[in-house]
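Anyone able to model this chain together with succinic acid?
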Amino acid sequence: MTHSDFLVIGSGIAGLTFALKAAKHGSVALVTKRQGMDSSTAWAQGGVACVTAEEDSFDLHVADTLDAGAGLCDEDVVRTIVSEGPDRIQELIGLGVAFDQHEDEGKQVLSLGREGGHSKRRILHSRDTTGREIEEKLLAAARAEPNITFHEHHYAIDLITTAKLGLPSENRCVGIYALDEKAGVVESFRSDRVILATGGCGKVYLYTSNPDIATGDGVAMAWRAGVMISNMEFIQFHPTVLYHPQVKSFLISEALRGEGGVLLGSDDQPFMAKYDERKDLAPRDIVARAIDSEMKRTGSRCVFLDMRHHTKEYLEDRFPNIYQTCLQHGIDPAKEPIPVVPAAHYQCGGVRTDIHGATSLQGLYAIGEVACTGLHGANRLASNSLLEGAVLAHRAAAHVVSALPLGRSNIEITIPEWQSGDAEDVDELVVIYHNWDEIRRLMWDYVSIVRTDKRLQRAATRLRNLKQEVHEFYWHFKITADLLELRNLVDVAAVIVESARRRQESRGLHYTLDHPEKSARVEDTLLSRF
Ligand code: SIN
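re: yes, here you go
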């Protein structure tokens, strides 16, 4: 059993920032299921939304966030995160993060990008690989910190609570079981301060901009432990992911539309003016629905993003990753429009937390994409998520050391060893892969951009059967990472569907043909297993 003062699960911006701050107070075990760099943060292209320009203001950033969130954001939470952003940006710069700059009247100033729903230029970026830049600098700092121990290739299985252990105290989280994938054994990690920073669940859908690790592990574990989950019906579909038979999950950043990119239909004509006066820079829910509607109307497999108003030199310099990737696949964005389709991108709901990241289970915090703080409401404003990850990590670290002081650890709690019983090796991997594909396809067909009661009902019925099958595997066979991911996917898919069925209106990212209007009642969806 590994014992630590803090136990962080996940190695993106939220997990690493928290670990660095907590390490000043005690020992940190950082558990991550692949290598440190394998996080959604490292894939973020656009950047970090933050008020830094003189002509911008916190009020404007708050107003844009509330507008995108379609009435469901918590305004106090939005204001707190927006106004604490500049301090967190300074810390990132202090760690060596190189945001792009340019010269203005003899001085170096930050270069600011624009994205959909933002009334001002306020996106700090590092070319089109902002997330990679942030991740590399945070990871280097965390690896150099003696109080942080990395446990890579460790797959968190389940939260351990005092209730599960049958202890008489008030229920709280006291650790996790995790599969050491290389050794093939299950280890226990004991801590009174457990931080979920496991990211989102894009892999629950057939098409996604997310890396393979995004299998909803944090929400699934929290759900199974009876923790409150909120607003999981709000899955954001990014309007523009590259459409190419050999390329999986490659994002064409919204920053391209911020630099004048125009969406064209299969007839080569711009179409966004028909849907919103902000045209290509309308909030994402509107743009993704417009593309979906154009594709259905014309029967085309994709739409196109036109960047031909820029020179090759500009595109190579400002968007080197996107430009080179397109070129490698036979598309020259300086000469031809880029084929794009919408794909699942961001989980706006998640484990319900307060403004310190504290969840409904004592000792458990959730930060970053896995959490639902109230910032995103029914639709996240572009590039608000890295900001939220950094701010909430800072706040959670400050809160946890005062709410759960270090000297008071109940280290005497012993976690029983994992029992495999007479579980056998999985005999037919094909069954796991088949179920995996079935979940992702049914979620895409029945629970994506446009929903109906009937589609949701069908999805719920199929998921019920799949869930039973997957849970039988789980109990009968020795666990593997694939099996654990499948179990998490099916649980998260069922939570999304149940949340969507409860929302009998259309709001933000949840659009249903059966209830096309917004309801006058503005409510979060709250789900808990117990
Ligand atoms: C993008 O670059 O378009 C993604 C930004 C985001 O999802 O916040």
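The chain is about 35% helix and 15% strand.
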